[in-house]
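Q: Convert this sequence to structure tokens.
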Amino acid sequence: MIEIINLTEKEINNKLVKETCEKVLRKEKIKGDIEIALVGPSRIRKINKIYRNKNKATDILSFEEKKFPFEEKIAELNRNKLGDLIICPARIKKTAKREGIEFETLLVRVLIHGILHLLGYNHQERGEAKIMEEKEKKYLNYILNS
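A:
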């Protein structure tokens, strides 16, 4: 199950978010639940500072299950839970404008990136980064063209 908690005033295409998550999980042959919180820039900056010691807003943060005690979490934890994604639509909108792409296209790309992190993919090492980047491109193409 994909649960979305919108703590912003920005309307988001929940269907697109859920379908993106479901498609990536299906392609990865993984079953599990993800909670997604949509937050503003100041909240994501605070979370980023607390958990990553980076005092800046970002577009997405991924927390594997039992690593992030989100204070406004509403669902019961279960053993099928993969983790939490914290997304800042305002940052995505700003980046999309700067890159000259549609908001929803970047939202899908960011979601794919976050989901892959929940599944254990990493981009810190060169070899792993290439694998993650290839998967991101493949899934983005699949989702945007299906």
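The helical segments are 14-27, 41-52, 89-99, 103-118, 126-144.
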